[in-house]
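Supplementary Methods. Inverse-folding protocol.

Structures were first reduced to a discrete structure-token string of length 237. This string, shown here, constituted the complete conditioning input.
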């Protein structure tokens, strides 16, 4: 392979971290995910209060615990990269908090949809970016976004509720579309506001990136996965 060609996606060379901009982009991405996990933990713990049964309350609490359980390793990695984890997370508090403010669920079922659809879209966005990172960082991000099997609980509860009251499906479908719009807006804003992340997506001489067409295809894939999740819930996207 000639020196000017981009490395393959599985390249595990640590040389990338000699580029200060790459290191900054990785720190930004890990910090955004870490604060997202903390925020998801807080939201799910609050949603547990809306649970109609003790079984549901325990299931949501378990989801919250799983989200928070990912934070420690992300903080460790941020420290290993020479960053203060809390300072690194600070720029992402406003956009993530704003997303949750705009998409506060009105009831138990809207909370379930948000936990499944909203978080799923955010995770898809981070996984897409992770594909352009070194193997160790990519593996950490993928592990941090694991579902832990909780999605089956959400699908079961939502499908059962719609079967009992078909009118609920229309309202939740509208809610799902709203979540999609807000999540895409947040993802695009975060990517655009952080110069290092923008540079990461654009790529460089020594690593592949995304042109406008590829960026468009990325968001198309995220939208398609959203539609698949909605279908799993028995809802129209």
């Amino acid at each position: 392979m000639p020196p000017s060609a981009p490395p393959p996606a599985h390249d595990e060379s640590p040389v990338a971290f000699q580029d200060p901009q790459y290191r900054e982009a990785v720190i930004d991405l890990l910090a955004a995910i870490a604060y997202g996990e903390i925020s998801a933990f807080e939201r799910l713990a609050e949603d547990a209060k809306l649970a109609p049964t003790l079984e549901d309350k325990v299931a949501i609490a378990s989801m919250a615990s799983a989200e928070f359980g990912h934070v420690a390793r992300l903080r460790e990695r941020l420290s290993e990269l020479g960053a203060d984890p809390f300072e690194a997370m600070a720029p992402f508090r406003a956009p993530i908090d704003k997303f949750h403010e705009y998409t506060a669920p009105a009831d138990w079922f809207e909370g379930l949809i948000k936990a499944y659809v909203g978080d799923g879209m955010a995770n898809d966005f981070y996984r897409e970016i992770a594909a352009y990172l070194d193997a160790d960082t990519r593996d950490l991000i993928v592990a941090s976004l694991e579902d832990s099997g909780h999605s089956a609980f959400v699908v079961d509860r939502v499908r059962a509720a719609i079967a009992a009251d078909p009118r609920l499906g229309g309202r939740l479908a509208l809610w799902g579309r709203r979540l999609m719009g807000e999540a895409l807006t947040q993802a695009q804003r975060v990517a655009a506001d952080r110069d290092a992340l923008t540079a990461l997506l654009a790529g460089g001489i020594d690593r592949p990136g995304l042109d406008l067409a590829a960026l468009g295809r990325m968001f198309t894939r995220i939208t398609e996965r959203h539609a698949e999740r909605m279908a799993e819930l028995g809802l129209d996207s």
